[in-house]
Structures are given as structure tokens and as C-alpha cells.
High-potential iron-sulfur protein (Arsukibacterium ikkense), 98 residues
Amino acid sequence: MSNLDRRTFFKISAGTVIGITAGGVSLSALAAEKLKLDDPLAAAMRYTHKSEVEGQICGNCNLIQGEDGQEWRPCAIFPGKLVANEGWCAAWVKKIAA
């Protein structure tokens, strides 16, 4: 294999890996469903879609993921599920300023 062929191979390989990874991330985000209140983990963590604790919502928790401003977002506590931005659970931790 010549250097030119090797370079081409690595460029194609890198592009393929990036494409598969990015595609997998977006597909998993689309596949996520909203967390139901009767989910066993949600019940154990006292999750609610609307926080009753002043100043504490999922949107200002350090465990929330995804883009700010979305109504439903992924959370590190509930893998594969989306939580309400206005929600709350017992694992709430104040968001660390970047």
C-alpha cells in the first residue's frame, strides 16, 4: 500500500467513524422517551414533572444534559429518558457555573 493510499484509507475511516458516532448520538436522542412518574427509578428518586422546591428545577441541576431552553432533556440519573426542564428529583445538585 502506498502512502497516498494509506492517507486516503485513514481519511475515509475517520469520516466513517465520526459519521457513525454522530448518527448514533442523534438516533439515541430521538429514541429517548419522557420519564413517566410511575417508573420505579423515578418513584425512588421522588421525581416530579413540576418542581415544588423553590429555586430547584432540572433545568438548573448539574446532572441535566442537552441544550438549554428545551422543555424535555436527558439526565444522567435516568439513562435513556427525558426529564421535564421544570421537574425535580431528590438527586438535584446545583449547576456549577462554567
